[in-house]
Specification:
By secondary structure, the chain is mainly α. It is built from 9 helices and no strands. Helix 5 packs antiparallel against helix 7, helix 5 packs across helix 9 and helix 7 packs antiparallel against helix 8. The longest helix has 28 residues. The N and C termini lie close together (6 Å). The relative contact order is 0.15.
Length: 246
């Protein structure tokens, strides 16, 4: 099992726990991860409760496997609920991003459950790499929208979407191919962390009552944890996953 000194485990647990708090507080499904409209209030509360209980459980060795398995199941259900939306609007980028985030979280959780499994290792590398490529494509396709999220005090607002888009695309290709995957995930993890400080916290400060802003920051924590979890599983040369023992 991953040690508790691994940043990916802590960040993933923190992000999932925060999403649970938001889900219970708002009585809604998680924006950016699940279809926003819940069938009813009880379903939303159960969903939030699972996230709220399972997140901290990842930090307790005794409950880690069960908590992770429950969360993987929840991510699978979330993805299944999004399929109809994807089929109805296959060009809707936000739906693809939401689905990719759910699958990436599930892949990182599977890596926590079975760190020695070749299938879990390969799946995590391919899924997280593909997610980064998708993120990069979104930045390159919609530079104006991404630039609008950059704080006004930062120079070169119009250039940042191109830089971050290219960076994520290259990093995704590195992770999928296994060539320089470890430094690529480290750089992406650092970039995601900077976004929490530079983008998400100021937006929350400007609109502290916005559930969406709190949700996006919690998702940023979770996805940063996903990237660092994969980083910790990569060999020093970034070319493959090392064997692990319990």
């Amino acid at each position: 099992m991953p040690d508790l000194d691994k940043p990916g485990l802590w960040l993933l647990a923190a992000g999932i726990t925060a999403l649970g708090v938001i889900g219970v507080a708002t009585e809604q499904l998680i924006e950016g991860l699940q279809p926003v409209e819940a069938p009813n209030r009880i379903v939303a509360l159960i969903n939030g409760g699972i996230l709220l209980v399972s997140g901290p459980g990842l930090l307790v060795a005794r409950y880690r496997d069960r908590g992770a398995l429950l969360l993987v199941t929840l991510m699978g259900v979330s993805l299944a609920l999004q399929i109809s939306g994807l089929l109805a609007a296959p060009t809707d980028v936000t739906l693809w991003v939401s689905a990719a985030q759910a699958v990436a979280i599930a892949a990182a959780l599977c890596l926590l459950i079975k760190p020695e499994s070749d299938g879990a290792r390969l799946a995590a590398r391919i899924v997280v790499g593909a997610m980064l490529i998708l993120f990069g494509a979104v930045h390159l396709m919609y530079p104006a929208a991404i630039a609008g999220m950059i704080p006004a005090w930062m120079p070169g607002q119009a250039l940042w979407p191109w830089a971050t888009g290219a960076g994520q695309t290259v990093a995704g290709l590195a992770v999928v191919s296994g060539v320089f995957g470890r430094p690529a995930t480290a750089l992406v993890g650092a970039m995601f962390t900077s976004w929490v400080l530079v983008v998400h916290l100021p937006r929350i400060a400007a609109a502290p009552s916005s559930g969406s802003e709190w949700t996006f920051m919690a998702l940023a924590f979770a996805l940063t944890g996903v990237v660092w979890t994969v980083n910790g599983a990569l060999a020093r040369n970034g070319g493959d996953f090392p064997s692990r023992t319990r």
